[in-house]
Structures are given as C-alpha cells and as structure tokens.
Amino acid sequence: MSNEKAEVLETTSVEDIKNEILSDFQLVCRSREVSLLGRKEVLTGKAKFGIFGDGKELAQIAMAKQFRNGDFRSGYYRDQTFMMAIGSLTVKEYFAALYAHTDVEKEPASGGRQMGGHYATRNLNEDGTWKNLMEQKNSSADISPTAGQMPRLLGLAQASKVYRNNSDLADWTNFTNGGNEVAFGTIGDASTSEGLFWETINAAGVLQVPMVMSVWDDGWGISVPKKYQTTKGNISDALAGFAKDEDSNGYKIFKVKGWDYPSLIKTYEDAVEYTRENHVPSLIHVEEVTQPQGHSTSGSHERYKTPEQLEWAKEYDCVNQFKKWIANHKFPDGSTIATLEELEETHKAIKKEVRAEQKAAWAEFTKDLKDDFNRVMPLMEQIADGSKNKVFIEKAVADFKATLDPIRKDMFSAAKKVLRLTRGEDFPAKTALQNLLAQLQEEMYDKYSSYLYSESAMSPVKIDEVAPSYDDEELVDGRIILRENFKHIFENRPEVLSFGEDTGKIGGVNQSMEGMQEQFGELRVSDTGIREATIVGQGIGMALRGLRPIAEIQYLDYLLYCLQIMSDDLATIQYRTKGGQKAPLIIRTRGHRLEGVWHAGSPMGGIINLVKGIHVCVPRNMTKAAGFYNTLLEGDDPALVIECLNGYRSKEKMPTNLGEFKTPLGIPEVVEEGEDVTIVSYGSTFNLCVQAAKELREVGISVELIDVQTLIPFDINHSIVESLKKTNRVLFVDEDVEGGATGYMMQQVLQKQGGYYYLDSAPKTLTSKDHRPAYGSDGDYFSKPNVEDIFDAVYEIMHEFSPEDFPY
Ligand SMILES: Cc1ncc(C[n+]2csc(CCOP(=O)(O)OP(=O)(O)O)c2C)c(N)n1
Ligand SMILES: [Mg+2]
C-alpha cells in the first residue's frame, strides 16, 4: 500500500471515529432528554406512569454496537437508549407508548397495551407469519415482574446452539446464520436477588449458550440499597464461582464502570465476540451507573438517598462524564473531537428536537381520540334537540367538552349518560348513536382485547379433527401410542425438540420418549436440571425463534414452579405485543389420580385462571393426547397438555395414521348418549364417570357422558347445552377443589351457554375435598371423588326428581 493511501485511510478512520463518537453523544443526549421530558409529561398528567433509562445510557450504546441482525434482547424497562441505538425505537414512538397510543403503527411495541419502558420489536407479519428475523434486530417483549425476562433469555440463547449444531436446520436462514446469534439480557442489580436470575444463570452455565448478561448496577432497587440485596453487596463477586477456567464450563465475567466510554466499548467488544464464537456465556457487571431522576414517577429518591450519594451520582452521571471525556480526548495525530461549549450546543439542539417529537406524538395521539369524538359529538347534539331532556343532555355534552385532555372513557361515559336521559324516547339520532357505540365497542375490542390467542390462519382452534384410523384391534399400552407418535413427529419435523427432567436418557419417567434420544440425538431430546421455570423459559425463547419446543414438566403439581412465567410471560406474548410476537410452545405434563399432598395432580382451577392465553388440553387417554400434539404442532399458539398419569399402561388400540390424527380444541365429545342426567368431566376422572354410568344404567338411570377435552378453549360451539335440552339435569365432576374447574365449567355451560334455562333439577358439582389428597389408596378414595360418589351424586339428583322411582 502506498504511503499516500495509508494516510488517507488513517485520516478517514479518525474522522469516522470522531463522527461515531459524536453520533453516540447525540444519542445519549437524546435519550436523556426523553427521560427528563417523559417525567414531566407524567407529572403534568398527560401520561399515567413513567420509568426511564436515565443514567444507563452509555453502557447501552456500547452494547448496541455489538448487536447484529438476528440477535435478540431480553431486558427490562431501563433500555430505551439501547432500543434507540439499534434503530428499533424513535423518540416519537417512545412518547406514543407513554401516552398509550393504541395504533401499532405509532406504538409498535404493544399498541399501547404495555406501560412505557416496555420494549419489543415486531417479529410477525400482519397475517401472523414470521418475518425474516435475520434481516432485523430483535427484542423479545418486556414484562414487568423483576427477573421475569430471565427464563426466556435462556431459550433465546439456546436456539443458536440448536441451529448451529442441527444440520437439518441449515436452511432455516430466516432465523439463523449458523447459530451465530447472541441473546443479550439486561437486569437491574436488585432484581438479581430473584430466584429466576440464579436459576437462569446456573442453567446457561451448564448449557453453555451464547448469552451476554448485563447487570445495570445503580446500587438500588427502588429504596433498598444493594447491601440488602446481594451477598457481598456485589453481584459479580458473588458470581465469581461461575467463572470459566480452561477446562471447566462457566462464564466469562467482566466488570466495567457505567460512565467509562472507552472501557465499555472494549468490554462489550471482547465479551460479545467471545460469546458469539464460542457459545460461552458472558456476564458484564456494569457498576456505578446512576438514576438521576430516581426510580420512577411514583416517588422521589431524595427520601432515601443521602446528600453525598446524590452528589456522587451527579458527578458520575454518564452524560457528564462522556462530555468531559470527549472534550479532553486527543487522537495520536493531535486532533480533538469537540469542545465542551460545542457539546453543550449540540445537547441544547437535541433538547429542542426531542420536545418537537414529543409534541408530534401528543398531536397524533390526541388526533386519534378527536376523530372518535367527532363521530360521537354531532349525534349527542342532535339527540339533545330531539329529546324532552334537552337541558340535561346539553349539560352532559358541555361537561364532556370541558374535560381537560379527554379520553375515550370520558366519551363513552358522556354518550351512555345521554342515552340514559332518552329512556323511552325513540328517534333516528338515538338509534344512530346506539349503533355507533356498538361499532366503537368493537373497535375497542380490537384495541384492548384482541390477540389473546393467535388470530392467524394457523390458529390451532381452526384445525379440524382427524380421527385415528385402525388396521386391527391390537391393544397396546397407552405410552406406546405416545412414543410412536412422537417418533413420527421427530422424524418429520427437525424443528421439534423436547427436554425436561429425565426426558433424555430414559425417555421420561413414563417412557413415552423411550429410545428417542438415541435415535435423534441429545440436541433434540434432552435431560435438564430440576428447574421448572427455566425449562419453560427454554421453551419460550426457542419458540420465539421459530423452533417447536415441547417442554416437559415432570408432574402437574410442579407446574406451580413455572406457573408464574407461564402466566406473566408465555400467556401474554401475543396479547402484549398485539400480535407482534408469538411463542407456540407446548408444555407437556401429567397429573390426575395421583396420591399424596404434593402429588395431587389436580389444581386445575388455579391453573386455568392464571393462563388465559394458553390452551389447556386435558385428554382422557393417550390417543387423545397424541392427537393434541399433532394439532398443536400444526398451530401457532402455546398450549399445556396434561396427560393422565394412570393412562400410560392402560390398553388402547394402536392407530395407523401416526402424526396425522388430530384431537380438535374446544370440541367436547359425547362419549355415551343418555336421557336422564348429563355428566360433564375430563381427564382421568372421566374414566371413573364411565364406570359410574355403567352402574347407574343397572338401576335404570341413563347418563349422557361428555368429555370436554379442552378446558381452554371451552366448548366453542356451545354443544353441551344441547345435551341439557334433552336431559334437563347436569353434574360437573373433577378432582379439583370445590369451585375450581367444575365451577368454571358450570359458569360456562349454565351462564354462557344459557343452560340454566333447560334445567329441571338443581345443577351439581362433585369435586375432591378442599384439602390435598392423603397418601395411599384409601387416602385417595376418601379425598377425591370416586365411582361411588359419582353414582350417589347422580342418584340423588334422580331421587329428588322422583323419590318413588328412585327410593333410598
Ligand atoms: C416480582 C416483582 N416484585 C416487585 C416489583 C416492583 N419493582 C419494580 S422495579 C423494582 C426495583 C428493581 O430494582 P433493580 O433491579 O435494581 O432495577 P433498577 O430499577 O434499579 O434499574 C421493584 C421492587 C416488580 N416489578 N416485580
Ligand atoms: Mg438498581
């Protein structure tokens, strides 16, 4: 290379570096001004709540420099600078979220559903199909519970490992480039106290996945300092034992100051490069970050910080430190970047620019509202003219007009009041307003209630039943049907993988994956540690990256360990992104008819009330269960499948159309027709009902037996009420506590389907006792409903109806 050319290159690169530094500076100032102005917007009442990323700007700039297309973030509410730096958040979008603008074009993270500071990218097309995730930078959608971002982070990172090592997925180029994608986690220092943090850190160390975990350490968790949070008051010291040495697994651990620009850049470069290449996780402990405005808009930090602490935070504020560093920096050629005065000028100009963007966001937000007001207002005014209550209506309209910063709630209140004032009157403007409100109500459904489940063409609820077909009458153990069906799935779908406690080597405690690990390898069928929350997290993260995980939770009772993450994260993914992300994870477990306080296998009411957003399948046998897996793998929603623990060795006919037969969601099955009483049940208890029905027939009582098959969705075609029209009597049976899933089924059938209208006898539920079942067969018999209990409950209904025909 000629000297001349080398010189040009050198000068260009110094210029480039200067420009990059100045551009970083501008972004830091922009983000800071967003925080300062955001707080004002909340305190003046235009937004409800604010939690900002001030004090954490510089580290996030360094992290963003290493973030590539295809990478994923799983973080928390302080990360606005990062989101801006990767080009996934504009200032206007920031304010749109603060105001809760419901238009996803304006507020792409959640369409106004999540409070500000909760970030997400849109990873799906409008029709629910995947975008090319390798052409964009990705952030999984934040949730508010501290450390709730951790379990899914594990799966996001593990997906890279699966993609890198499973050659059958080599052409999945919309999701991966040879497994080179890194999952970036962020968390606050105090939130590292949560169990989910430790569980995830340990699991990622064992699994050796490409995860870069940043801790923004500002020393506080709201008002509680870190000496009450962390052993030794220092998270990286406490984690020192996790450090990788030459021949161990573990972490690369880094410490860096949150105001030290060159060190931050270097640290992130080193950490991410190493992690990306070697699939060894890194932990970056970013110390001495600050929170200039305190925790959130809910309080002021002067209440709990000493003047010295506040003074220190001012001095080490990363924006100030960055300014000083830039002003003092000299390149080897003697050139400088900018003077303090120039930097102040830049900062001032950015402040103005942020103000303008905020105003634009407010104007767009209020314009949407005004568009609705302008639809309603003329009708309210016309109604005033046509009503005998003109004066009162005019007052209601005037009150609405005088509301400061009115929202749709004010509009609906006013319109309903106006309609109430016209009770008994009838004229066209009134009908027009009624119709308009009904239409608006539908629009509000779209804004606030859509996308709890998939709305795409792949929704599993849209998948029709395919009956199992049989060649002969050969009977096999139920587990064999599951096993052969899984085998078919693994052979045909390279993106399907399963993992859990004892899932790998022995193929599950009930051996329904027997031999699968040998055949398909450890990457596809694997053992995990005993850590239910992160087993589900692995599943969520991998599902967010296009894989089809089946996460196994060994027993239903232990679902409680991961119920929080199912409820807060998995169940809300589509909803909280308004269809921007999906994680079609299947969680597989087994329960019912278990014995013992911690093997009860029945807390269904608790579960279904907490996981709306996840389908809940309760098959009564293994053919049904296998059929659910086939349905769900064709769909794009998350689901929980609860197999019957006592069904693995029950005999069933072996279907021939493995992998093809499908159990439909939300379609109950009338298993036996009858005339006198309808019994509605599911799962193992259903099989007891079959026995009881047989005994009842012997005393002249004909029972119609209905298996609901799925608790969520529940009987989408309202078919159970048809049975009530015939029998006029109903008993709901399960082994949950009183008021649990039987209470839910009763509400669905009697209230939602209008079943009360057809009843001639009081509706009944039969449940277990409110305590957990005692150990042993007698413990079970006297704790849970048994065949005799079901017989007696039905007989009692018939006795009450006709004591002569059904005497005691
Ligand atoms: C499970 C849970 N418990 C409590 C809270 C309330 N809360 C929100 S933020 C916070 C403090 C978090 O501190 P830290 O992790 O250090 O993050 P920082 O806000 O300091 O950046 C608490 C207690 C919550 N959101 N979730
Ligand atoms: Mg903190």
From TrEMBL:
It is an enzyme of class 1 (oxidoreductase). Its EC number is 1.2.4.4. Its cofactor is thiamine diphosphate. The keyword DNA repair does not apply. Pfam families: E1_dh, Transket_pyr, Transketolase_C. Residues 476-650 form the Transketolase-like pyrimidine-binding domain. It comes from the Bacteria. InterPro entries: DH_E1, THDP-binding, Transketo_C/PFOR_II, Transketolase-like_Pyr-bd, Transketolase_C. SMART domains: Transket_pyr. The gene is dxs_3. E1 component of the 2-oxoglutarate dehydrogenase (OGDH) complex which catalyzes the decarboxylation of 2-oxoglutarate, the first step in the conversion of 2-oxoglutarate to succinyl-CoA and CO(2). One of its GO terms (molecular function) is branched-chain 2-oxo acid dehydrogenase activity. The keyword Nucleus does not apply. Keywords: Oxidoreductase, Thiamine pyrophosphate, Transferase. Gene3D superfamilies: 3.40.50.920, 3.40.50.970. GO terms for biological process: branched-chain amino acid catabolic process; response to nutrient. This is 3-methyl-2-oxobutanoate dehydrogenase (2-methylpropanoyl-transferring).
